[in-house]
Amino acid sequence: MIADTTEQPLLEGRNVSKYFGGLAAVNNVDFAVCPGEIVGLVGPNGSGKTTLFDCLSRLQKIDSGQILFKGQDVTRARPYQIARMGLARTFQVIRVYRKMTVLKNMLISHQWKDRSILRMLQPSHVNTERRARELLDFLQIAHLTDAQAGHLSGGQRRLLEIGMALMPDPDIMLLDEATSGVNPTLIETIKDRLRVLNAQGKTFLLIEHNINFIVDLCSRVYVLNHGEKLAEGTPQEIIENEAVIDAYFGS
Ligand SMILES: Nc1ncnc2c1ncn2[C@@H]1O[C@H](COP(=O)(O)OP(=O)(O)OP(=O)(O)O)[C@@H](O)[C@H]1O
Ligand SMILES: [Mg+2]
């Protein structure tokens, strides 16, 4: 999808900082993701990527700065509020209910995210199940609908987690290492499905260590190092940036 970067950002961070004791895990980071973009967030281990996702999905309070979503200040929003506004995320360590079936995982994730009493009282279960089945089909794991989630491969579980995040039909998805522990074939499946979702209007912010994935999907990339924004640019600019190469491979 061709993103309009002149538009108001969908998600924006201004001078975001998060400390753990004396450690600045995220330090004065500015960024913006516009509607329709696929933006990468990269950086060496421990550079603050997941912490920034935790701040954006409101699982962590920030110490200073501002977070805006759809132009609204959500710096103090609760996780369920920002989820309802249309932000979904996945986790670096996959969170699925291993003893439950794939379908049950999809249905439960929908219930957690939709806490509205009125919606829960509506006879919408049929629609919810239909949506879950359609998404599993779209993600090419429909044959696993009745399998226990714990029996899935790493890649199949990543696809399930993406499906769970898709249940409430979010506008932006924050995916934390969606290719980690995934075999090359399923990495291609994930890439292809994200492309289709993006063409349908979904915006993405991707934490990734797989540089090919970033190059193939992202129009822009932010690089964190020691909690600070080290660089931003196109994937090509980033992989040629001396400071970035040094952060990854330097002493
Ligand atoms: N809950 C926490 N309490 C204390 N320190 C934390 C906590 N979470 C993260 N940190 C520290 O904050 C820094 C950033 O960690 P974070 O997990 O955000 O990095 P990351 O870029 O996601 O790394 P990786 O690529 O390994 O996943 C690290 O030094 C980490 O040890
Ligand atoms: Mg991380």
Calculate Rg over CA atoms: 18 Å
- Give the CA-based shape: globular
What ions, cofactors and ligands are bound?
A: adenosine-5'-triphosphate, magnesium ion
Low-confidence stretches: none
Please write the CATH class name of one domain. Alpha Beta
The count of DSSP E runs of length 2 or more, i.e. the number of strands, is: 10
Q: How would you name the oligomeric state of the polypeptide chains in this document?
A: single chain
Would you tell me the overall average pLDDT? 92
- Tell me the β content: 15-25%
How far apart the termini lie comes to: 39 Å
Instruction: Give the helix proportion (percent range).
Output: 25-40%
> What is the fourth-level CATH superfamily of one domain?
P-loop containing nucleotide triphosphate hydrolases
Walkthrough of the structure:
With 251 residues, the protein is an alpha/beta fold. The chain has a domain at 11-94 and 170-249: P-loop containing nucleotide triphosphate hydrolases (Rossmann fold), CATH 3.40.50.300. It has ten helices and ten strands. The strands form two sheets. The protein has a six-stranded mixed sheet, with helices on both faces. Strands 2-1-4-5 form a four-stranded antiparallel sheet, with helices on one face. α3 (102-113) crosses α5 and α3 (102-113) packs parallel to α6 (154-166). It starts with 10 loop residues before the first strand and ends with a helix. Adenosine-5'-triphosphate (ATP) binds next to β2 and α1.
